[in-house]
TrEMBL record:
Gene3D superfamilies according to UniProt: 3.10.450.50
Source organism (scientific name): Herbiconiux moechotypicola
Protein name per its UniProtKB record: SnoaL-like domain-containing protein
Domain of life: Bacteria
InterPro entries: NTF2-like_dom_sf
Amino acid sequence: MAQLSLPSAVGTYVTAVNGHDLDGIVGSFIPTGVIVDVGRHIEGHGAIRRWAETEVVGGRLDVLEEHPTAHGADLLVRFTPPGSASGFRAWYRFAVTEDGITQAGLTYA
């Protein structure tokens, strides 16, 4: 993957997903962080851990486009779920602070 100019926490998230690093995925979020995954609200480290453990770890996240925003970054990605031979395109919209990701909105592209 080419070097991206992502906010630190977003780069940590992408690296952790591709490294199958559950603690890294969870740790990229602030403790009260929220994921909105196609309408499902996943809030806090415990819920993010359960979500990532069953739906993310073992998958592959390829960044296709990167768009910095005032409060984070929007990424067009191809996510290939664990155990799948093919992936899907999605927009991942991250809001971040210096402490980590505060919210990630995941929608199909």
